[in-house]
Each structure stands twice: as C-alpha cells, then as structure tokens.
Amino acid sequence: MSGRGRHAAPELAHRYVLGPRLGEGGSAQVFRGVDTRLDRPVAVKIFRLDDATPEQVRRYAQEARVLAELTHPTLVALLDVGADVLDGTGPVAFLVMELVEGRTLRELLAEGPTDAATAADIGRQVAQGLGHAHAAGVVHRDVKPSNVLVSSRTAPSGHRDAPRVPVVVADFGIAASHGGTASASATASYQSPEQALGLDIGPGSDVYSLGLVLLECLTGDRAYPGDPISTSVARLLHGPQVPPSVDPDWARLLRAMTRQDPAQRPRMRAVEAELRALRLAAPAPA
C-alpha cells in the first residue's frame, strides 16, 4: 500500500517516492520520483485502473511489453513495473523509467525552428531508435515532437559522430507489430496517410511521421495544422509543402519520407544514414 503518513509524499511499492508531476495524457500521468532502494531519480508513469477502459489497460500492458523488449540509447529505458493502491487515487499500475532531465522537442520548437545541423542531429538519433524498434518488429505509430525528449545533459565530445543534442524517444503506448492496424489514439497532425485511412501500417508509417517532425524542426510550422478530420483529409489530397528556403538535399529527403505510398518511402536505416550525412555537412550551431 502506498503512503507513509498523512503529510508524507506518495510512495509506490514501498520503494518509489513520487514528486512533482511532469506530464499528463490520456489515462496516464508521469511524475518525477526517487527510487529509495537505489537512491536515484526516476520517472514514474501511473495508470489509474478504477475507471480505465479495456483499451487503456491494453495500452499500459503494450507499453510495458514493448519497452521490456527494446534496449537502445535513444529509447527511454524501462526499469520496473508494478501495481499498488495510491492514496486519494485508488488502484494504479505503474511503469518506472529512466528520468530524462530536460524538455520535449515540442517545448523546444515553441521557441522557434531549429537550425539544420540540430534538426539533423535530433532526427538521426530518433531514426536510430526507431530503426532498432523496426528491426525488432515494432512500429511506434505516434512519432511526434512531444514524444521526443531532449536531454539537458552535456553531450559527449571528442567524436565527430557523437550527438550534439542528446534525445530519446518515449511513449510506446500504441506501438504495434508490423502489419497492425491504425490506432485512433495516434496524433492526427503527424499520422501517415495509411493511418488516416485505418489501413494496416508498417515501419513506413513512422518514416512518414518523422518526416513531418523534421519539416517542423526546419520551418517552425506544422505541415498539417487544424482539427483531426481536416488534417487527415489534407494529407490524402496532397503531400506536405516543403518551402523553397529548405536546402535541396533536405527537401529531397523530406519528400521521399512523406510519399503517399509507404512502399516508396526509404527505410529508417537509410533515413538515419542520410541524416548523419546532412549533420556532418552542416556547420555546427553557434
């Protein structure tokens, strides 16, 4: 049972002391926490069970299962799972994950577009993580700026291929195996055309979504703003508009990643290689 006294901080499984809330979405809340056994900071994602729908329970179980199978420096690491009764909330299930100190890519883009070198650096790391997931048979299905965590830790130096802005990919709650159908939980602004149509999806869907994220990094604008219905229709009628100001090599890659036919899009490993070349060719940000 959780709780260590009337005014004590909430505790889960007699081990994880909860601190401030870091975020919220759907049926889950994410808190900063402390693992009292190992004396380290963690992120704790809590799912309320008393009023959860079967789909929400499925998402929790899916995220736990996927994260347990995937280990990569650019994917958020799962440390523990469990269930408890939280005072004032009721029965909960929880995931304990590595704490990424920093902010989301969505928060970073709220300040304006990135330079090309930073966009390539972030994109290459996201492509690495997603490529690893694809090789394991997993499609993320909800690639978007708020699911990319930008770490505030100092980037390693001394190697030309080391990340300048370290990032990790989070939230595999609606991930699925290759060939799974589209999920209504995916964010409309970044859905692939096949997701908008409710068709079977594969790794190419993540490639498309990452293309939209990278375009937004370079321009500061969403390719498909608006309500879910209008954005879904828009992407079926035309591809995203790549401004003439975008470097030709970037424009070529973005158009390839966002082709209507998923079979015509490059594989994530090829995207990673292209982004690595763009990053090395671009001048380092001041």
Q: What would you note in describing this structure?
A:
This protein is α+β, with helices and mostly antiparallel strands and 286 residues long. Helices cover 34% and strands 21% of the residues. The chain folds into two domains: 11-98, Phosphorylase Kinase, domain 1 (2-Layer Sandwich); 102-281, Orthogonal Bundle (Transferase(Phosphotransferase), domain 1), CATH 1.10.510. A six-stranded antiparallel beta sheet has the order 1-2-3-4-6-5, with helices on one face. A three-stranded antiparallel beta sheet has the order 7-9-10. Strand 2 (16-25) and strand 3 (28-35) form a beta hairpin. The chain starts with 10 loop residues before the first strand and ends in a 5-residue tail after the last helix.
User: Total number of β-strand segments?
Assistant: 11
Q: Can you tell me the CATH architecture of the largest domain? A: Orthogonal Bundle
Q: What share of the residues lie within helices?
A: 25-40%
- Strand % is 15-25%
CATH class call of the largest domain: Mainly Alpha
Task: Write down the Rg.
Answer: 19 Å
Q: Low-confidence runs (pLDDT<50, min 5 residues)?
A: none
Q: Taking all residues together, what is the mean pLDDT?
A: 89
> How many separate domains make up the residues?
2
Helix count from the secondary structure assignment: 8
CATH fold call of the largest domain: Transferase(Phosphotransferase), domain 1
> What's the story with the biggest beta sheet?
6 strands, antiparallel
Major beta sheet, strand line-up: 1-2-3-4-6-5
Q: Order of SSEs, N→C?
A: EEEEHEEEHHEEEEHHHHH
Broad shape: globular
